[in-house]
Prior knowledge:
- The protein is an alpha+beta fold.
- The chain has helices spanning 11-21, 78-86, 137-145, 206-216, 257-262, 274-288, 337-344; strands spanning 6-10, 37-43, 48-54, 58-65, 67-70, 72-77, 92-98, 101-105, 110-114, 133-136, 162-168, 171-177, 181-188, 200-205, 226-231, 235-240, 243-248, 268-273, 297-303, 306-312, 317-323, 325-327, 331-336, 351-356, 363-367, 373-377.
- It contains 7 helices and 26 strands.
- The strands form 4 sheets. It has a 9-stranded antiparallel sheet with strand order 14-11-12-13-26-25-24-18-22. The chain has an 8-stranded antiparallel sheet with strand order 6-2-3-4-17-16-15-10. Strands 5-1-7-8-9 form a 5-stranded antiparallel sheet.
Amino acid sequence: xxxxxxxxxxxxxxxxxxxxxxxxxxxxxxxxxxxxxxxxxxxxxxxxxxxxxxxxxxxxxxxxxxxxxxxxxxxxxxxxxxxxxxxxxxxxxxxxxxxxxxxxxxxxxxxxxxxxxxxxxxxxxxxxxxxxxxxxxxxxxxxxxxxxxxxxxxxxxxxxxxxxxxxxxxxxxxxxxxxxxxxxxxxxxxxxxxxxxxxxxxxxxxxxxxxxxxxxxxxxxxxxxxxxxxxxxxxxxxxxxxxxxxxxxxxxxxxxxxxxxxxxxxxxxxxxxxxxxxxxxxxxxxxxxxxxxxxxxxxxxxxxxxxxxxxxxxxxxxxxxxxxxxxxxxxxxxxxxxxxxxxxxxxxxxxxxxxxxxxxxxxxxxxxxxxxxxxxxxxxxxxxx
Length: 385
């Protein structure tokens, strides 16, 4: 049901708000309809339009300024509402409720959407805690993007279908893993605004992290605005420029990534030109992805100042050499090419470093000058092609 809301806002701002909150609707095919809807509320006193979505485990709220004529609330299909807004070319758009319909009107168009009846949309519940962490949007976005690609995308594997977020020693640290690879990154929070006063140890679901990263790229974001992070016992809240995102925390134990990194042994090192390396990896992957016995696998043959990469599928073979600065005994190892592309494709350094012990041990990869972001990947079973 709904109250008779009535408001006018900028079309682009409303569309951007929907693009933020749509990331937090339910992805379940079967379930309560309103969890695929967007709750739209008006606040006449503050002249704001408020959009909210939730899947009951996480929720998003966006406030935008407008001209509010009547207070009210209604829930409509998020997908349909966004579709209508995308085709509006007028600068301003008005939304109002008439009976069981939402009217979306501009100077040159008028559309209607059926309301979601009897939608008992949950009230907004944030995190009631005074202590918070303050981080620049660009820093937090990079931190999450540098680790989230390694997290498991399998929602049933809850312990690693998340990003680990920790604060200690005046650093904000993040890690992601699917148990076959691990990304770790950290940023310095010395002399920044905030009152942490305690350690942060939280595993944030990957869906929430993906939604937060997209929110930080929104056109609604004001440059140089900081993100405020507040963490409670079972929830975490991110606030940025009129956008609030709250998520339940993953309660299962995250792998002990610190011990894995600390106990890593290496005695061989290869330095490669990043641009050349990513190019040859992509060529190798075009064949390796069709390998039925070792999908995405290729053989990396390190010898004095060169690396030979070989991949095959049922019908084709790829082999190419590139120059390296290599120290240590010759080594032949099988690695997942797709995993390497995922990391090397993000490295901004001109050169990348690979550190290895043997063909059965974890490989460490990083940008040559960046010690705040590392990547570990497990080797595959070595098969001679």
